[in-house]
Amino acid sequence: MSDDLQSKFEQAAKDVTMLSEPPDNQAMLQLYGMYKQATKGDCTGARPGMLDFVGRAKYDAWKALEGNSQDAAKQQYIDYVNGLVAADKK
Asked: Taking the model in full, what pTM does it have?
């Protein structure tokens, strides 16, 4: 992993918190899945039960990215955040 990619990833994680309005739920799930894949790798553990709606949605968002490398997930996260930041500036 390059230091440049890591520093851009860390900056993107900061930038997303500085948006004028928080992203919608779907965007938050995308961000969560990409962040977890980038920092932890493939999803582990059992899928939460049907009554744990939030846990299940988060698990599914992360599981959908299974097989992506951590560096690829970092780049996806950076690109996604950059799109949110650009839309926020309009």
From this structure: 0.92
